[in-house]
């Protein structure tokens, strides 16, 4: 019983509030951002009215201006068409151009309606075919392609729809 009292007493002594050790003083003059108040007399009645002597100039390099410019660039790029989430079938992915072209020719031979295309994303060549907005339709075609190309993948992708 006595040891419990000793432990509690030690715990309370250890939890004693301490005074802050930092003695740094922060000061910054923000008066240039405050409007100036002047007293004006109107018909011997004193009133205070807010008078701004200098026009307020916003801080330079503000992030809103940068975000607005980025949004404007994105809008200009996207105004010609609409991006749609969909699916494509990837038949080949590797670093050999010849194998990518062979896969494209073979894919074009078996499935010409899918119009396979070779793309290069350093350091890999990729052969992708078809543009599907419906996952069920994409999976049906993928099952047929999988018979000829066992390493084929059904991958989600965003593509641009251009209206003619």
Describe this structure as you would to a colleague.
This protein is an alpha+beta fold and 164 residues long. The chain has a domain at 86-161: Sporulation related repeat (Alpha-Beta Plaits, 2-Layer Sandwich). The chain has helices spanning 2-14, 63-78, 97-110, 135-148; strands spanning 37-42, 45-50, 82-94, 117-121, 124-132, 153-161. The strands form 2 sheets. A 4-stranded antiparallel β-sheet has the order 4-5-3-6. The N and C termini lie far apart (89 Å).
Rounded to an integer, what's the Rg over CA atoms? 35 Å
Low-confidence runs (pLDDT<50, min 5 residues)?
none
Helix content: 25-40%
SSE pattern:
HEEHEHEEHE
What is the CA-CA span between the terminal residues? 89 Å
Fourth-tier CATH superfamily name of the domain at 86-161: Sporulation related repeat
**And the CATH topology of the domain at 86-161?**
Alpha-Beta Plaits
Average residue-wise pLDDT: 78
Taking strands numbered 1, 2, ... along the chain, how are they ordered across the largest sheet?
4-5-3-6
Main β-sheet: number of strands, strand sense, barrel status?
4 strands, antiparallel
Strand coverage percent: 25-35%
Name given to the CATH architecture of the domain at 86-161 = 2-Layer Sandwich
The secondary structure category is alpha+beta
CATH class of the domain at 86-161: Alpha Beta
